[in-house]
Amino acid sequence: MHRIALPLTLAVSLAACGGLPSPPANMPPTIPLSELEPATDDPFSALAEVDGTPSVSASTVRKGEVLATIPIRYRHTAVLTQDVKGYSITVSGTRVAAGAPGYYVGNFGSTGGYGRTSEVSDMWCFFREAKENGDPDPLCLLRNQTGIAAIAPTRLSPYYWTSFSPLSGSFNYVHTPIFERREVAMPVSLALEYRFEGWDEGVPEVDLFIRDKKARTLRGTPAGSGSFTIPTIAGPMQIAPVAGDPAAAKVSL
Fold it and tell me: Does one domain contain both 150 and 84?
């Protein structure tokens, strides 16, 4: 059973915020682990599924070129039923308005400091209104048992989380988001784009992008006959070298 869980240190003191709020009576529960089983060998398949027909390069590819594109939708979505209000001194007013759609991106372990027991919290991202000539912008929030949520750093990809550990070690906070889990469309199109990075000591490396923002780098696993596989939510992607061209690769999915 796969579970997304990474260490997180909440180092900022909340004493200056006037004490911790009590958890709201209608605070949504976390997603049961029974709903977080990955559908393929790719752990991300616990969070998202294929939404359309993947496209795969029919020719050889080189560094920076696209191997495959897989349209996706999130498996666990929700709609805010109340405005998300700021909690920290530096964060005031409504951060995300009621009615905003959102999606679940994982469970993460957190600690309050040395010697304190680790807790697991879930992270949800909700779309703020689009800025002029821009796309809607998701705000990702790690919920907390005390009725607050930490704002995830915007420099990280909001669509594909493998960790939540900003270098500063401190966070701004909002009151915990109150939402209703239900199927809802996101206001942006989403797809996993796999770009060939090259061969590293005979092993293919692939950069994964979502909406033109790099999410992570993947390395192939040997699959016999000189080929390699990389797990995706659409099944294993096979990458093989091209005879006579050490900088190129060919792909199938």
Answer: yes
